[in-house]
Write a structure and sequence with these properties.
Elements: E1 2-4, E2 11-13, H1 20-37, E3 44-51, E4 57-66, E5 69-76, H2 85-99, E6 104-110, H3 115-120, E7 124-129, E8 138-144
Parallel strand pairs: 5-6
Antiparallel strand pairs: 1-2, 3-4, 4-5, 6-8, 7-8
């Protein structure tokens, strides 16, 4: 479906089946603008995997960093949950973030997931979307390494 923008050569199209190439094309001008405003984002990835006895990945942590902070996008343990591995993963991610010279970590979770877990690791709530999804909240957390009132990750 296309909707022509009045008085211009631009059109807006609802893409029925978006693909990753479209995301890349949409992202390109934003990245260029951001880099013009704040150059040197120092972008990178961080992955820590949890593997079973056969070497198959059953969970782990996936993050990316830029502008001096690590964003923990995913932390999932599946069958390995409840054995202290989440704490170990976060401790290792923090150590690696510090090694890379980053100033902190940010992440988000839902009230039905693990907000208490992150609070116990020294994260501070910095934002919340209430009733999303309905009956729950989405919570955003940050932990800065500069001594700004956040504790270090406790030992296992």
């Amino acid at each position: 479906m296309s909707v022509a923008a009045t008085g211009s050569d631009w059109t807006i199209r609802l893409e029925a089946e978006p693909d990753p190439g479209m995301r890349t094309a949409i992202l390109a001008p934003l990245v260029a603008y951001n880099e013009a405003q704040v150059p040197g984002g120092d972008w990178g990835l961080l992955a820590l995997t949890v593997r079973d006895a056969d070497g198959a990945i059953v969970g782990g942590l996936w993050g990316r960093h830029g502008y001096g902070m690590l964003f923990v996008e995913l932390l999932a343990l599946g069958p390995a949950r409840g054995q202290g591995l989440g704490r170990r993963l976060m401790r290792q991610a923090e150590a690696e973030a510090r090694r890379r010279g980053l100033s902190g970590i940010w992440l988000d979770t839902w009230t039905f997931q693990a907000p208490g877990f992150y609070a116990r690791l020294g994260f501070t709530e910095c934002g919340r979307i209430t009733d999303y999804p309905p009956g729950h909240d989405r919570i955003f957390y940050v932990k800065r390494f500069d001594g700004g009132g956040t504790a270090a990750v406790p030992p296992p």
